[in-house]
Amino acid sequence: MSTEKTKNGIIQQHADENWQKISAAGYPPELLAKHQDSIKAIAGLSPFVTEVALTRPVVFSRILANNWHLEIDIDSVCEQFNQRLSDISSEEELLVELRLFRAEQMAALAWRDLTNQQSIEVSLSQTSLLADTLIMAAYNWLYASQIKRYGEPQGPEGPQPMLILGMGKLGGKELNFSSDIDLIFAYPYKGETDHPRKPIENQQFFTKLAQRLIAALNKTTPYGQVFRVDMRLRPFGDSGPLVAHFAALEDYYQEQGRQWERYAMIKARVLNPDSAYSAQLQAILAPFVYRRYLDFTTIDAIREMKQLINKELRRRRLTNNIKLGAGGIREVEFFAQSFQLIHGGRETTLQSKQLLPVLHRLAELQIVETQAIEQLIADYYFLRKAEHTLQQFNDEQTQLLPDNVWTQQVLANTLDFPDYEAFLAVLEQVMARVHSQFNALVAEPGDEQQQQDSLFSRCKDAWQIGMHESEFTELLDDALDATSASALYTQLTSFKQQLSKHRIGQRGEDTLNKLMPEVVYYMLRQCPADSVILLPRLFSVISAITGRTTYLDLLHENPDVLKQLIKLCARSEWITEQIRTFPLLLDELLTPLYLQQQQTDIAVVYEQYSDELRQSALRVEPEDTEQLMEQWRQFKLCQQLRIAASDISGSLPIARVSDKLTILAEVLLKAVFTSAWQQVTEKFGAPNHLQDDDTGFLIVGYGKLGGYELGYGSDLDLVFIHNAPQGAETTGPKQVSAQQFYIKLAQRIMHLLNTRTLSGQLYEADLRLRPSGNSGLLCCHLSGFTHYQLNEAWTWEHQALVRARSIMGDKQLQTAFTEIRNSILTRQRNLTELADEVVKMRLKMRDHLLDSQAQGLDLKQCEGGITDIEFMVQYWVLGYAHQYPALTQWPDNLRILENASQAGLLSPLQSEQLQNAYLTLRDHYHQLTLAGEKFAHSNEELETVRTVVTTQWQQVFGSILPEE
């Protein structure tokens, strides 16, 4: 006999036997005939459904009448049941109706599941909704019954409910088919009921209600049981009160709440309808569960829970349990909830009660690889389908693989396997994959260190044991030369003395004593040659976080983060200073995006930054300007660190570094403008000349911003322009002239940019390039700007206009500005006079800005430096754009040089040499900024570049240069 025939034979045998029993149970023959095939199918798959058919004929008839096999509207089913309870007059009747409804709906659900009429996702949702309905229906009836006798507890938001927290899978809307339900009860305020003659205390009222509700659900009657109710997750467990008021809950979780309770509370869901009271309860629980920043203080607790799980697996030998066994359902849940505890405080989108959205979000946030998450989800639902099938077979709370052949074949049949052995083979693969993810979740401390050589032990001794310098030097003689070891000894000794002056608490001290040997070890492994300059940098970061144990834990628990920190600090004093000043940047090292393929398309990068900024701003209340300003600054710091790290790692060329820094500034400027516009228009209304979505406002970027050449820490040269007609006013309750409105708008933008918050300044914005400089209006009219440029501007101001462009504003204003800029730049000028003015201005700048006593090269101001190239470019534009208008097309030096070559102003070779020289000088300048240095050391490459620039300068301006 074939395997398929054997499988079908066993199921068919039971189907035939159970069909005979149902046929003899007294049902109308026409009803059975109509559903014969369907009934025989389920009778072979579930003794539970067969039992309902044999013992609850009214229930089973209703299932058949309601077309169980069709897609059902579960919400309507639940609503009809609630209406049915309105006719109940006694608690005894309530208990009967609850149990009959549960039997009816769970049997119908099992029928749909075992015959694969719906997905497991739908089944989990339906099971949870049915549970919600049964619990709340019982509660509502009992509450209404109880207030008739004792009166109703009143509060500031009206009648006080008993809030029911569904925990675990019930809270996550992922309830098992046959499951306990974990509940916690709470009520808002102490006080008395409003009974006119015999009021009772609210505590007494709600305790009685809780006892009645538990009995209504938990009690086993001739009609069965609704749910086994477990209350042990409440404060103080079995010894605590059945129900507690909000203030008591808050005190408990603030003062005594334990890590496992935080873990349990992740899925806590208020089953009652939304209300002010339910919002209050959520507000109490949220800060207990989720810390504001990345919470690595929970790592030890998560590790302990993981160890307990592994110990339980070994002790109980749970090899055939698809929930509690290695690679079972619990490990998937633990995986997701651990990440929620660690990251959920900062990434509020992880604060979901449901598993699936959390797993998807982990992939979106790049905390876990997308492919791994997709596989984990598929494996999870495979396990949940198997679990439901096991429980639906006989309505038993079991996750154990079956011993009897019938159940085995039902399992194989429902999950679409040819036989049970094929199911087991796939199950083994699924659970192995899940367990692998579980094991990788929190590495045991020392896992990596056990693979390290003896150097780690010696680094541990170097930190923890007091020793003389000679002993220290000898200890590390194979890793450092004597001079470096001596310097390291002095640095470590000094740092220890410095730490002794700080109060960091026992926990912080313990973590630091684990961390510091790792710091020294990885430093000596990665970059021993830089240890003398590197260790003080690392110490400066660690000193900044000694009072913030979370970050010490982050470095200790994540060797990869510590390694990245060491690498970045070794390469960059600037990055060191950024992380020291803003430790939140350590979070960025958890997912080092700079090691990945870099996106360099300007439009794509702009959209990426815009989308990320928009998502980060969703965490902030729209009216909370201070927090919004802080969010912008944190966003800039994080993105800037990623760019700098990409720069250091070599994954991003210098031109693309400046592009990204420039786009970042543009995106933030747009956000600042949007906020400023909203704030100013709320107060004054918008100018009355505007139509549709116009703002009548333009932001022009000059200098590095205009030329797509921003560097680290660059300020923004801005000019604000408006087009309001004379006499225009605002439309708000507090009217001002349009001119005043735009000045106030400019002031607000400057405030949002320049103000220092905890995360520093967003950008230092400079308006000195506006018409008339510091004495001019903060925001000038378009006609005033035009008049000034045509009639009053100096040559150096027209030079500045070469690198000016519209950053954002109305299309009409952008077009007008471009036309004005082009008309100014394409004016015909006397070349000799222009060259003379350009050279005089260059020499004046060099005299004023170049430090002749400096030990090194100022790459911007020195002869043959960056500014020399910029001045030549500006000269070519101002001198020849009337002949070659293409010179005005772009504001950046590289593309202007390309156009100058095409115009014949210099040869292709000269253009290429100047472009390469410009890129080389800027690259060195960027690296100086990252290294925290101002002056470069002369070398062959720099001298070659400067010679190219100086030679070209001589060819352009040689005839008018002053004689030496």
Most strands sheet: 5 strands, mixed
Mean pLDDT: 87
Q: Number of domains in the coordinates?
A: 6
Taken as a percent bin, the fraction of beta residues is 5-15%
Instruction: State the end-to-end CA separation.
Output: 108 Å
Individual helix count: 40
Number of strand elements? 14
Query: What's the CATH H-level homologous superfamily of the largest domain?
Result: Beta Polymerase, domain 2
Family: Belongs to the GlnE family.
Keywords: ATP-binding, Magnesium, Multifunctional enzyme, Nucleotide-binding, Nucleotidyltransferase, Transferase
GO cellular component, one term: cytosol
Catalytic activity: [glutamine synthetase]-O(4)-(5'-adenylyl)-L-tyrosine + phosphate = [glutamine synthetase]-L-tyrosine + ADP; [glutamine synthetase]-L-tyrosine + ATP = [glutamine synthetase]-O(4)-(5'-adenylyl)-L-tyrosine + diphosphate
Would you give an account of this structure?
With about 950 residues, this protein is mainly alpha-helical. The chain has six domains: about 120 residues, Nucleotidyltransferase substrate binding subunit/domain fold; about 120 residues, 2-Layer Sandwich (Beta Polymerase, domain 2); about 150 residues, Up-down Bundle (Four Helix Bundle (Hemerythrin (Met), subunit A)); about 140 residues, Four Helix Bundle (Hemerythrin (Met), subunit A) (Up-down Bundle); about 220 residues, Beta Polymerase, domain 2; about 130 residues, Four Helix Bundle (Hemerythrin (Met), subunit A) (Up-down Bundle), CATH 1.20.120. About 60% of the residues lie in helices and about 5% in strands. It contains 40 helices and 14 strands. A hairpin with a 2-residue loop joins strand 10 and strand 11. Helix 28 crosses helix 30. The chain is elongated. The N and C termini lie far apart (about 110 Å). The N terminus is likely disordered.
